[in-house]
Fold this protein.
Amino acid sequence: MQVIRYPEKNTWNTLLQRPVFDTRELEATVSAILADVKATGDAALRKYTLQFDKVTLTDIRVTTAEFEAADAILDESLKNAIRQAALNIEAFHRAQVESVTLIETMPGVQCWRKPVGIEKVGLYIPGGTAPLFSTILMLAIPARLAGCNEIVLCTPPGKDGLVHPAVLWAAHFTGITQVFKTGGVQAIGAMAYGTESVPKVYKIFGPGNQYVTCAKQLVNSAGTAIDMPAGPSEVAVFADDACVPAFVAADLLSQAEHGADSQVLLVTTSEKVIVEVEKEVAAQLALLPRKDLAAKALDNSKLILVKDRDEAMDMLNAYAPEHLIMACENDEALATRVINAGSVFLGNYSPESAGDYASGTNHTLPTNGYATAYSGVSVDSFVKKITFQRLTREGLLALAPSIEAMAAAEGLDAHKNAVSIRIKSN
């Protein structure tokens, strides 16, 4: 990790940049795959699964027998862990379900808003170097609470042509029966356009690498809604002398092990913290099975020393991290100054891993600085909110002068007449 001490504010834009690919080359590659999926459907899914995953597929859809085999294989202790996580996630997200509230804006004028589940949603679950079955809980549970009628899940198969048993068990546990063995850009295309096997959906959810993120943005520009631009995972930590350096190092490594394109950032007011965290990172990294991947991510990562807490918060808000850990004195008071972050973890005993798995909050969050404008996934992500209104004749009579005056001022006589004709009728 690179150590930077007291950087000038005019260098922050460069300092806080994420690792990026050449987007022009990326878009050309992704567009070509999407066009192929749109034109040739399942044939393209099989072709790219063979090319990228080195697997020859016969059935793209996961069979009942495969679900049953996953149930038989999966360790009961892991099933219980998933059940516990699901209970917490459901409890947190159920509180987000809105009831319909009727508002009488003036006598005889009633307005209300009703949340309606998006009928068809697609969930993308990355495979690659780790089977992210926890993401199924984070997406399927709020989708079910929102009332989505059709939930489709796409995930890449392993080298044996099968989906990881934990992924299948979590899908079945959350009520998903339509699971398809396709990953990457081709999975996003399949859900956006539909193929012979994979149904077309109205909105696509789920994280992925920069190719998947690019694919989601491209299909979004063509009319398929997406949750957010969610790319490689990242964490920022603010720590002072109240932190436990071993905990901070563990938090940094927990994100670095996601992959080489992840990024971690430590901002601190203490030189001592930098020295001790560096030492702990080296010691803990050596023991990790995924140390080679984590080490590559650490090459993109920084330890930054700043002069005070004010500068630290300005820098962190400018970075707009996906995850923000505050391991410091008076963490709750300082956290009131957070304006750009996907999810915030307060204190020495709130590891980001808790939010990733089982505390109850959602781990599908905006990355790459999009926390300046996007929220993480919630029940709201899976609903449309439709407004309704009913006016009595008396209500319209009372409101008519305002409507007629405004319509006339905008030169929209038909709008005015739609009111005038009613108030003149018997």
